[in-house]
Amino acid sequence: MIQSHDPRMNRLGLSDAPAAAVAKEALDQFGTYEVFHQKKEGAPYVYVGPVHAPEADVAFLFAKEQYSRRFACTGLWVVPTAAITVTAYVGDQESAYDTLPLVTSHKEPAPDASSPGTSAPAAERTVVEAGEAGETDYDIFHLKKRGKAHQHVGQVRASSPGHALQVAKAAFGEQRPVVNVWAARSADFLRSDAEDRDIWATTPEKKYRDAIAYKVQDRIEKFKAENS
Amino acid sequence: MYGSASTHDLPTTAATGLENEDPILLAEFEARIARGEKIEPNDWMPALYRKQLIRMIEQHAHSEIIGSLPEGTWITRAPGFRRKMAQMAKVQDEVGHAQLLYSAAETLGKTREQMLTDLINGKSKYSNVFNYPTPTWADSNVISWLIDAGAIVNQLANAKGSYGPYCRALDRICAEEAFHLKYGHDAVVHMATGTPIQRQMMQAALNRWWPAIMTFFGPSDKMSVHTEILMRWKVKMASNDECRNQFLDMYVPKIWEIGLTLPDPNLRKNEETGQWEFTEPDWEDFKRVINGDGPCNAERIAVRRAAEENGAWVRRALRTPKTQYVRPLA
Amino acid sequence: MDPKLDLLYRLADDQLILGHRNSEWNGLGPILEEDIAFSSMAQDKLGHSLQLYSLLHQLGEAEPDTVAFTRNAPQFHCCQLVELPIGEYDFSLTRHFLFDHAELLRFEALATSTYEPLAQVARKLRGELKYHVLHANTWMKRLGTATEEAIERMQRSLNFTLPYALGIFEKTDAEAEIISTGLFVGEDELRSRWLESITKVVAQTALEMPDVLSLAPVAGGRQGQHTEFLQPLLDEMAEVFRLDPTADW
After folding, report:
1. From the CA atom positions of chain C, what is the Rg in Å?
2. How is this protein annotated for GO cellular component (chain B) (predicted)?
3. Separation between Cα atoms, residue C239 and residue C241, nearest integer Å
4. Which of A59, B76, B323, C245 could form a disulfide with A31 if both were Cys (CB 3.0 to 4.6 A apart)?
5. Cβ of C29 and B307 within 8 Å?
6. Rounded distance between C-alpha atoms, residue A79 and residue A209, angstroms
């Protein structure tokens, strides 16, 4: 048995015999979900990173503690990585929309927003609706600078991911630079409910994991004064 | 918590493979880095860039997950609520950093399964300091303060590197490390300025850890073709000696001001050169430990392996075979 | 004992001991992300106990650190459920599920306590506890409907843990006064709400809910009678603190 300074490890009863080689199976760590958070009410959702999880509900549990345990947060979205369509990356001064294939077959998005039967979008989202049967909502994210994080710019209605990028180009293509665009079906996201915002209510009070809670200069000065 | 891109074990003679790369793409890639733009996962990149980044980020990730163990040793024994909760939060952060870094490495094409497999089979390196034990609470405090301080010196440098996902992970990590550093300093100051028992515990722990701390940034870099290329590509951002000197400059005075001593009679700052002088660390011993023969190597790997084995049934139960694995995006 | 003290000690000791136990998983969890989530909830439990010990301090008891780190097992009022070693993850998750449902319902009831400082704490922690229960339910449902191996493990853990969980609701001599003064709705009422709440979740799994009311509760914890595991836990927890009780750590 390995004797450890850690009582927890001694309880595990670790063998000190040489261990045989082992290999993890594929998907031992599951697939991944991409996570977006909202820092404050009304702010755009921003990409924070992935979590490994078997299903969206578990991904949400994981994302909440990995990405929002330290700083103020008012909302969280998770979406399967595989559900996101990604454009080419371009330079920091360019627009990724310029790399999209020129299309003639897709309908240009109609500026009509009064189509019945579409899901009611939340107020803060910019919506471009085409109002076509078989179309669905897509969330669009822009990367403004390499090394920074993708940000939500709005929703569009489209019949396919490729179409969604075309619609997004019409709606948001004026913005520059756009280094990269992500599009994903809105239905593929799991989003925190507004009524569950209180799960973050006490985060700012957890000072023990905040640098500003540790002020030790007085103690140092006192020690120096006593020992000089 | 990670020391440096360990260029000391890079090949000095092996080919860089650059002659096999498309010269036009290579020129564009280098021009992008020279302009100060970051490289993102879908960009074209030379095989050597990908390989070295995977190696570095993976080692960094392993250093976080293994690095949670020496401080985790005191997680059930931290004295008082304030320390108990902070120690838990700090150890948790190290696991969180591992998660962020494994994800960044994954964007380059190595799966987390492969990286964890290499770790638990002893095939991967991690920061050598974590192969030393923490026999007292004070040892844990020394890590919290000084190993994290060293790691921050390195990580702040690397956060200016060229690979986007690694930079994003490091920005987040550095923000969290600010708490670690303050917490560690607070704990050390309380011990050093406290009762005789506390003071003695802290001095003993510092004496134990100092030789390992001096090796944290690795031996002086060998200037090789590889090193030069990695610096040009902003993979390696500062030399090991620069990092070590910066660390000594920032922290030795803070150690001395609370009445602690360091077990190196030759340690002093040369005011003319601005460089610290010290007894050369025992690099032979460093090599021996990093190659597996340190006091805790076997335990660290055995613990990680046990955690993976004990959790296997949980992961088996939740696995959804229909899942299509794709690399994380950014 | 004064009913307020009686109630607070039971709540605070439960949270301290379970938070301590769950922190033992830190670095050893089944997957990195879960390791992080479980640690957060353990930290929350420690935080809850600290707030409750602080209320006790306002009522004239010793400082939270002194109360938490210097008493011995017979002076603790926690239920035996929280003392048990962490075991394997099925047990720790089941304990988390059974305990946190009771905790959420307890704090919901305490939000209208006549003891206003406690009511304030209870209201503030609501969101935190909501996440804890969401976490517990998600795991229970996932594992309870997963592989044969997982279902068997969870069933075994549920059967083993339920009698201990019933010990959460062990009454003390102060119970009648606690109810009559409006401090709290009482343990019997809490138990019936809890049973309804956990039964609903278990019904969504392949697990069978034992006939809970026919089980003999593992009681005694509230009277200072504990398992053989509590004193070693306390000795370990206070190992550094007791090196120099005069020190400021």
Report:
1. 18
2. cytosol
3. 6
4. B323
5. yes
6. 29
Separation between Cα atoms, residue B216 and residue B127, nearest integer Å:
7
**Which chain A positions have a beta carbon within 8 Å of B37's beta carbon?**
91-92, 146-147
CATH number belonging to domain A28-84 = 3.10.20.520
From B86, which residue of chain C is nearest by alpha-carbon distance?
Answer: C43
How far is B13 from chain A, CA to nearest CA, in Å?
31
Question: How many CB atoms within 10 Å of residue A194?
Answer: 10
Alpha carbon distance C140, B213 (integer Å): 45
For A73, other C-beta atoms within 10 Å of its C-beta total: 20
| Local structure of A90: helix, strand or coil | coil
Domain extents in chain C: 3-243
Q: CA gyration radius for chain B?
A: 20
Instruction: Supply the pLDDT for residue A110.
Output: 40
**Cα-Cα-Cα-Cα dihedral of B71, B72, B75, B76, to 10°?**
-130
- Write A209-215 long-range contacts (CB < 8 A, 24+): A209/A69, A209/A70, A209/B85, A209/B86, A209/B89, A209/B90, A209/B93, A209/B179, A209/C43, A210/A70, A210/B179, A211/B178, A211/B179, A211/B181, A211/B182, A211/B183, A212/B182, A213/B182, A214/B179, A214/B182, A214/B183, A214/B185, A214/B186, A215/B186
Cβ–Cβ under 8 Å, residues C167 and C221: yes
Q: What is the pLDDT of residues B242-281, one digit of tens each?
A: 999 999 999 999 999 999 999 999 999 999 999 999 999 9
- Residue corresponding to tokens 């004496």: B207
Beta bridge partners, A139, equal A155, A184
The closest alpha carbon to A72, from A215, A210, A180, belongs to: A210
> A87-189: what CATH class?
alpha beta
Consecutive 10-residue averages of pLDDT for chain C (249 residues):
96 98 98 98 98 98 97 98 98 98 98 98 95 98 97 98 98 98 98 98 98 96 98 98 92
Classify strands A46-53 and A31-38 as parallel, antiparallel or unpaired: antiparallel
- Does any CB of chain C come closer than 8 Å to the CB of residue B190? yes
Cβ pair A182, A150 in contact under 8 A: yes
pTM for the model stands at 0.95
Q: How far apart are CA B253 and CA B247, in angstroms?
A: 11
Residue ranges, comma separated, of all CATH 3.10.20.520 domains in chain A are 28-84, 87-189
B269: nearest Cα among B252, B254, B290, B293 = B252
Taking the C-alpha atoms of residue A177 and residue A143, their distance in angstroms, rounded to an integer, is 8
Q: Where are the beta strands (DSSP E) in A81-165?
A: 84-86, 127-128, 136-143, 151-158
Contacts of B88 in chain C (CB under 8 A): 23, 26, 39, 42-43, 46
Strand partners, A84: A184
| CATH top-level class of C3-243 | mainly alpha
Is A127's pLDDT higher than 50? Answer: no
C-alpha A196/C-alpha C127 separation (Å) is 7
- Tell me if C127 and A202 make a contact (CB, 8 A cut-off): yes
Contact indicator for C169, C162 with CB cutoff of 8 Å: no
CATH number for the domain whose boundaries are B7-318: 1.20.1260.10
Q: Quick check: ipTM above 0.90?
A: yes
Of C28, C68, C150, the CB nearest to B313: C150
Please name the chains neighbouring B, where neighbouring means 3+ C-beta pairs under 8 angstroms.
A, C
